[in-house]
């Protein structure tokens, strides 16, 4: 009888595997975002936005995000980063990425690509949702989700811009982390 329960437990763990375990099994589509308070683990979603995921991974591997500030952090809404000028007007020297809108909802912990009024203007800036934001659904590209460390994201200094902004200490693709 105990063998049956053991087999059922193993089967259940395979069927109901948490998102974090899935992310850890795919280091190529997992980001480590190191903040002043610790490490945030992000599951990338190439199934939803393959071009945006490829861009973020390319910039991450180039070290582009290391040291960049969170220039727009609205309590109860989101924290935005990815602009090397810290003004919200800058980006990488790469061409913009066309929109990859999906039906994935903007929920707490979701990562979306920032853009101008043009849907096809995403470049390097992204935001992490502090709370659900259904008005963004289908209007911005969802490319990932925080699976560990959302409490660290909650601690990012608020402001538009913050007087003393927090920054990304280091961002890495998990497959490259030592």
UniProtKB/TrEMBL annotation:
PROSITE patterns: CSA_PPIASE_2. One of its GO terms (molecular function) is peptidyl-prolyl cis-trans isomerase activity. Its EC number is 5.2.1.8. InterPro entries: Cyclophilin-like_dom_sf, Cyclophilin-type_PPIase_dom, Cyclophilin_A-like. Residues 1-21 form the signal peptide. SUPFAM superfamilies: Cyclophilin-like. Residues 38-178 form the PPIase cyclophilin-type domain. Keywords: Isomerase, Rotamase, Signal. It catalyses: [protein]-peptidylproline (omega=180) = [protein]-peptidylproline (omega=0). It holds the Pfam family Pro_isomerase. PPIases accelerate the folding of proteins. It catalyzes the cis-trans isomerization of proline imidic peptide bonds in oligopeptides. PANTHER family: PEPTIDYL-PROLYL CIS-TRANS ISOMERASE-RELATED, PEPTIDYLPROLYL ISOMERASE DOMAIN AND WD REPEAT-CONTAINING PROTEIN 1. Belongs to the cyclophilin-type PPIase family. This is Peptidyl-prolyl cis-trans isomerase. The lineage of its organism: Bacteria, Pseudomonadati, Pseudomonadota, Alphaproteobacteria, Hyphomicrobiales.
